[in-house]
Amino acid sequence: MQAVPEPPARRRSLTGTLAMLCLCPSLALAQQASDWSQVEAPTDSPPRSIGQTNSGCVAGAHALPLEGAGYQVMHIERNRFYGHPQLVRTIESLGQKAAARGLGVLQIGDLGQPRGGPMSFGHRSHQTGLDVDIWFNLDPKFYAGANLLRSNVNAPSMLNASKKGLNRAAWKPGHITLLELAANLPAVDRIFVNAYIKKELCERAEGDREWLRKIRPWYYHDDHFHLRIACPADSPACDNQEPIPAGEGCDASLNWWFNHQPSSTPTPPPPKPRLPDACQAVLSAP
């Protein structure tokens, strides 16, 4: 399934992308999501991602340690800090690189549930243990007043009050460095950011700009970036997305985003793909 939003030439793929990243699962999926969200621990089995990132699961997931070099997990009470071991290693590597560059403490949002699968709120993707949200906020004082579960704070937006550009008091050169570090990690397939953030990267990035290709504009994503790794080699039942188009993505395909905002009229989400049969065994495993 194509999950890289593109301008009109690729507009037929946009509906499928909405299914992957749109918030608020339909009521028809609520019970299924509840089943997955009530599971408290991963399966005791070799790791493998199964299905599509918006319709799948993960066996043998690992928990990201709640604190590590250069990062700490937020909203612990959600129990969404699980992923394929390769995702966990990728986050830990990014934290280490960010710390070495003096970027501050990365605040890690949702990964996935212990066995992946659909969530009861917040995401339609993040189901196969390959996705993580990382906040743009780099100020360690921001969450100092949060309780031990770090559940009393939300990520601050990088956009200005008009939502038509960046908040220059919040956006720093270190954010460009962070996204470059993230995009250059070997396992990373793509990273979703707000279109104004992508525009800033196109205008400011220097040197080797090949990494910009992995940075994809998408609605919202102004307070965090959504990092997705490719299907790991140990997961033959994992469905990779279509390849990202060639080029930096700083052309007319980016300009399209500033003239096409999401409709304010609620529309039902597209039909959701059926979970692979193998996911039932993952859900019911002891």
Question: Any low-confidence stretches, pLDDT <50, length ≥5?
Answer: 1-28
Tell me the helix content.
Answer: 10-25%
CATH class: Alpha Beta
Helix count equals 7
Average pLDDT, all residues: 87
Q: Write the CATH fold name.
A: Muramoyl-pentapeptide Carboxypeptidase, domain 2
SSE succession: HHEEEEEEHEEHEHEEHH
- The SS-based structural class is alpha+beta
Keywords:
alpha+beta, four-stranded mixed sheet, 7 helices, Muramoyl-pentapeptide Carboxypeptidase, domain 2, 22% helix, 286 residues
Please, could you describe this protein's structure?
The chain is an alpha+beta fold. The protein has a single domain (8-284), classed as Muramoyl-pentapeptide Carboxypeptidase, domain 2 (2-Layer Sandwich), CATH 3.30.1380.10. The protein has seven helices and eleven strands. The longest helix has 16 residues, at 85-100.
How does the SSE layout of this entry go?
Layout lengths: L13 H8 L8 H8 L10 E5 L2 E5 L2 E2 L3 E2 L2 E3 L8 E2 L1 H16 L5 E3 L22 E5 L37 H11 L4 E6 L1 H10 L10 E3 L6 E6 L22 H4 L22 H7 L2
Parallel strand pairs: 5-7, 9-10
Antiparallel strand pairs: 1-2, 3-6, 4-5, 8-11, 9-11
Brief digest:
The protein is α+β, with helices and mostly antiparallel strands. The chain is built from 7 helices and 11 strands.
